[in-house]
Specification:
single chain; alpha/beta; Rossmann fold; seven-stranded mixed β-sheet; three-stranded mixed β-sheet; 7 helices; about 30% helix; about 30% strand; binds glutamine
């Protein structure tokens, strides 16, 4: 029997090497399904959490820091079985393949069978916000999605990956219907930043998803 079976609350970790981790912790702190939300900076902390969020930031820096502090391989192991949500740079880290990667390539954690394109919409000043319909995840009210130097999902590389959100209108050169959120079993990824809103519906969705994954194990 799994030691986490029958849990009604989970201990959540947010990878805190770089980027917008505090905002995720604040969102999680307000959820009744979260017993504790901690920043994850070392192996001991990683091994203590039931589920993980990899935040937005800069995937090249995050990968470099993870490698230097010996967390890259443990993260690769973690995401094989434990519920993990990557937002923006976190989504790039979780992807199996990334285009427009740093010259010479960049390390990824991988696990999620998607190909992403980094910085799809251009630089910081091409950042934008839009409404996304994700009724199965958050109900009928659209979600206010903030995209900051965001990636998109250009290819889904396995039938196990379910598309959960698409852009609803053309943004610059990027067509409407472009994929911006997916789920593959215990892995979830969004190209935008839900932690920068006051809307915790996606955080609540992820924790419920994680609870479900744990009780099915
Ligand atoms: N452009 C960043 C990267 O490639 C992601 C930006 C973000 O997380 N807001 O890592």
């Amino acid at each position: 029997m799994s030691p986490i079976e029958n849990k009604t609350t989970l201990k959540l970790g947010v990878l805190a090497l770089q980027g917008a981790f505090l905002e995720h912790i604040h969102m999680l702190d307000n959820l009744p399904t979260v017993s504790e939300a901690i920043p994850v900076r070392n192996l001991e902390q990683l091994q203590s959490v039931d589920a993980l969020i990899i935040p937005g930031g800069e995937s090249t820096s995050m990968a470099l820091i993870a490698e230097r502090c010996g967390l890259l391989e443990p993260l690769r192991e973690f995401v094989k079985t434990k519920p993990t949500w990557g937002t923006c740079a976190g989504m790039i880290m979780l992807a199996n393949e990334a285009t427009s990667a740093k010259k010479g390539g960049q390390q990824l954690i991988g696990g999620l069978a998607i190909r992403v394109n980094r910085n799809q919409f251009g630089t910081q000043k091409e950042s934008f916000d839009t409404k996304l319909h994700m009724p199965k995840l958050v109900g009928e009210t659209p979600f206010h999605a903030i995209f900051i130097r965001a990636p998109i999902i250009t290819d889904v590389l396995s039938d196990d990956v379910k598309v959960v959100a698409r852009l609803e209108q053309k943004v610059g050169q990027t067509e409407a219907e472009t994929i911006v959120a997916v789920r593959q079993g215990h892995l979830f990824a969004t190209a935008f930043h839900p932690e920068l809103t006051y809307d915790n519906r996606l955080h609540s969705y992820f924790v419920d998803m994680a609870l479900e994954c744990h009780s099915n194990n």
